[in-house]
């Protein structure tokens, strides 16, 4: 057991003793932890103890002492694992015997002690960008392989970036980049954590992390320029979600970059529109006419880009149900994704191929795991950097792996995609049959 100042305590029959001083002959003197009590004992280097002198008070209440021992153990666990939720620490660390002796008051005290223990080891939370930039310059950020982790600390534009030389070297040999942001796992001074993943050998590795104060095009440009200035080469293909500011920034920094829309994000965007129009219940009913019509749209991204508009006009419009919500959804698709003058024309998101690279939700999966690392939204900058360093340790392992085949679930989907593509190419099925077949396998929300 330890004190709040991390000093060791010795327990004996309900009494706590603290180390007092070292005597001649390497003999330790331990005295009662209660300052008004003169009880003590001596302990030799071989472990032999003298008799304990008398206390002038009663021993600790056994229930209180049990709670203190448990709290002590959980505080040390909480400090060792800064990102773990207090509720999970309580759930996993408390034994059934201890659980039977605890009450609501005990649990409340233990939670407070966990929070206090964590707060005590971290510097004060920066209250301004100026404080944050100064703190980051002095705060040691080294990976397990002793690489510097902080690579951008821009106090003019308030951009902070984390990566390592190993990550940047790995990125130069990747087949593609995937970028995505999260707005939950970000300190209060910033608006988002923007992450760049490298894709290689069927693996997606988080390599570069930017803390950005806004979602403006100019901010994305500065972030990408920082990356460009720190590496001599990046992949020629980038997969991004459907945010115009990011598209504009990418082409400003890398004019020859091949920009592709991620099918996963496209599906999410379309499904959110379905929800906003109050059509999600229709979508989820297998035999619903409106739902069946809406689900077909998710096969469009697998067509050749030049076929998308014809499929929409000639096939989908021919069976459009008479429903106000459906009309509004179709208008939304045309204005944003079908018209050649739209923000995201088919050339950006449609592709007839046997590749599943566009379809991945690797970035979304990463952000979900990242968000689950914190027990509250908008974590302290020190807690966030600790989590990112943990992720970096995992990235080191992923970068060493050479995966010779894709995961089984993707392999199954690829076989299906290849088979349906073959049917379409050999005219065993027409365009509309192809779209309907493939849409079922790649719905954003399964039935």
From TrEMBL:
Q: Which Gene3D superfamilies match?
A: 2.20.25.240
Instruction: Kindly give the InterPro entries that the UniProt entry links to this protein.
Output: MULE_transposase_dom
The residues covered by the MULE transposase domain are 178-266
Q: Pfam families from the entry?
A: MULE
Q: What is this protein called?
A: MULE transposase domain-containing protein
Protein source organism: Parthenolecanium corni
The root-end lineage is: Eukaryota, Metazoa, Ecdysozoa, Arthropoda, Hexapoda
